[in-house]
């Protein structure tokens, strides 16, 4: 715990924050962003794939805001890869984003993951961040959706 | 916008097929999809669309090749081209929409094409 000599607040560094506390930060920032930009249509976009035991075996998590969708997480359990589940998840997210009036989808991945998966689906590289982690590269992608619903809610 | 047409969507990209099926169904159309020109030609006799929407650049048959095959089969159905690679409407297509486009515009074009195919005034 450290106390600033100038502010009467306490700064606490945590490496295992409560999800609810992190959500508070995200919510406060979102409120600020919405107020400044006038875009208050932010929604989570999450898709789960579950097996018979109701275990999550694949999924996608992201959000839409303004006219943009963002994919934060796309994961398929190792033994289920190569069956098109990842592609199906991405397409479902793109369709939902377009339905919400988005014009484009952003995401980032790493060179050791499968960047070609996105390149083959019309994602263009916006930029690269080499050396993170180690000898690998973080890659930022964008896809311009081929159409939009301009009357989306 | 409601057109209530039978629409065949031909595009190799799953996103396009899914999105157009989703949207056109919402506005009242009956939609079938094909991932290639060859698949479209198989579906054609049974689905008997009022309108065909086709991408230009696809593996195998291009949009123009699909149009030619449809006409050779003696079918006069209006064909709408959607493409991000073409700048003007190639001969023979009812209309051309350049990607990215507004889905509401597509619905209007589908309605006009459907009426044209039935011999009605747009």
* Percent of sequence in beta strands of chain B: 15-25%
Count of distinct strands of chain B: 6
Helix content of chain A: 25-40%
User: Helices and strands of chain B, in N-to-C order?
Assistant: EHEHEHEEEH
Biggest beta sheet attributes of chain A = 6 strands, mixed
- Report the span from N to C terminus of chain A: 46 Å
Mean pLDDT of chain A: 93
Per DSSP, the total helix count of chain B is 4
**Measured distance between first and last alpha carbons of chain B:** 14 Å
- Kindly report the average pLDDT value of chain B: 91
Strand order of the largest sheet of chain A: 3-4-5-6-8-7
Describe this structure in words.
The complex is a heterodimer of chains A (about 150) and B (about 120). Chain A has 3 helices and 9 strands. Chain A is of the alpha+beta class. A 6-stranded mixed sheet of chain A has the order 3-4-5-6-8-7. Chain A has a two-stranded antiparallel ribbon with strand order 1-2. Chain B has about 120 residues and is of the alpha/beta class. Chain B has a 5-stranded parallel sheet, with helices on both faces. The longest helix of chain B has 15 residues. The relative contact order of chain B is 0.20. Chains A and B meet through α2 and β9 of A and α1, β6 and α4 of B.
Show the helix and strand layout.
The complex is a heterodimer of chains A (153) and B (122).
Chain A: E1 2-3, E2 10-11, H1 19-37, E3 43-50, E4 56-65, E5 68-76, H2 85-99, E6 104-110, H3 115-119, E7 124-130, E8 137-144, E9 147-148
Parallel strand pairs in A: 5-6
Antiparallel strand pairs in A: 1-2, 3-4, 4-5, 6-8, 7-8
Chain B: E1 6-10, H1 14-26, E2 30-34, H2 37-47, E3 51-55, H3 63-72, E4 79-83, E5 95-98, E6 101-102, H4 103-117
Parallel strand pairs in B: 1-2, 1-3, 3-4, 4-5
Helix pairs in contact in B: 2-3
